[in-house]
Amino acid sequence: MYTIRAFHNQSVRETEPHSVIDRSPLAFHQRLPGYTPTPLIDVPALAHELGIARLWVKRETSRLAMPSFKILGASWAVYQALITRLGTTPSWQSLEELATAVAPLQPLTLAAATDGNHGRAVARMAALLGCRARIFVPVGTAEARITAIQAEGAEVLVVEGTYDDAIVRSAQEAGPHCLVISDTSWPGYEAIPRHVIEGYSTIGWEVDDELERRDEDPPDLVVVQMGVGALAAAITSHYRRPAYAVPPRIIGVEPTRAACILASMEAGTLTTIPGPHDSIMAGLNCGAPSLIAWPIISAGINLFLAIDDQYACTGVRRLAQAGIIAGETGAAGLGGLLALRDNPRIAAAIGLRSTSRVLVICTEGATDPDAHARILASDCRTDCLHGQACMPTP
């Protein structure tokens, strides 16, 4: 059994009328070329293994031709930032028309810090709208992720330090000809990260619509990854709407090596944990929660769970057996469920039982193919190396 840490939220608010996010981001995404809802996959074999009634995997491995859900937040935030700077909402039917409408703002650069997926999504939007992109990554970022960002036409700069150091560096780029598109917030910088959270709400609406189409009951337990907390805030806001007569319980998952949100819950206040943050769940390697995500997730998530890398690796392999090719961060939600299976006392306390209907979100595909191959070749009897995927057992 591998190490986990857990914090039960004794003061959770299961209904939060002020956290409602409407369907405007979904309507925007539906106008983008190539939009289609991502699959909601029923995985009965995994449900049986976990001892639950249903397991749905919302597969975000290909979203608007990108290998993760991040384009949802980046595209909506870029759009909102551009129309704010324009001072008007232009009429447009295509991205070409939108690019023409924002042309008076040129030359314009979009800047961001990233562990991979968010920066690539910002770079894609910059290319589509005729902007430049400058993306900052922490040292140790997988070369495959850097190459993918560069392939979008972006300039990539490696920052000596953690993701949080890259955030600080990216913030210095803000100016008349540069918009910083961050998925986390700090004092004085809140509007754009709030739009990122709004953009992620499309995931929840798509799940609702698909289950309604199938005439199936909604999940009674939702598992979501936590990095700075933006996705977790979007999912929490969605499932804490008054529309849910019986709101689902929510579990937030992060790495034990970067458990800044769990540490903040334990301290009762926003807490920064020092690096290095070297989990293989690269998209969750964050040392400080987002200021605007924190009030939502601290009030709305039932269980905060930090898991070792081995659980994410096992999640990658279990998803592969189900035909879902996931990266390490993408499999972290399932990794959290696997950790609960190994810790029945915690599972019982959160209400995970044989009748449970559980939703997990596979947030990314195999964005580091070498790491993915190593994970599939391993059985995790050996420890994961710091910052690397599990290596094959001799």
UniProtKB/TrEMBL annotation:
<feature type="domain" description="Tryptophan synthase beta chain-like PALP">
    <location>
        <begin position="33"/>
        <end position="362"/>
    </location>
</feature>
<dbReference type="InterPro" id="IPR001926">
    <property type="entry name" value="TrpB-like_PALP"/>
</dbReference>
<dbReference type="InterPro" id="IPR036052">
    <property type="entry name" value="TrpB-like_PALP_sf"/>
</dbReference>
<protein>
    <submittedName>
        <fullName>Diaminopropionate ammonia-lyase</fullName>
        <ecNumber>4.3.1.15</ecNumber>
    </submittedName>
</protein>
<dbReference type="Pfam" id="PF00291">
    <property type="entry name" value="PALP"/>
</dbReference>
<dbReference type="GO" id="GO:0008838">
    <property type="term" value="F:diaminopropionate ammonia-lyase activity"/>
</dbReference>
<keyword id="KW-0663">Pyridoxal phosphate</keyword>
<keyword id="KW-0456">Lyase</keyword>
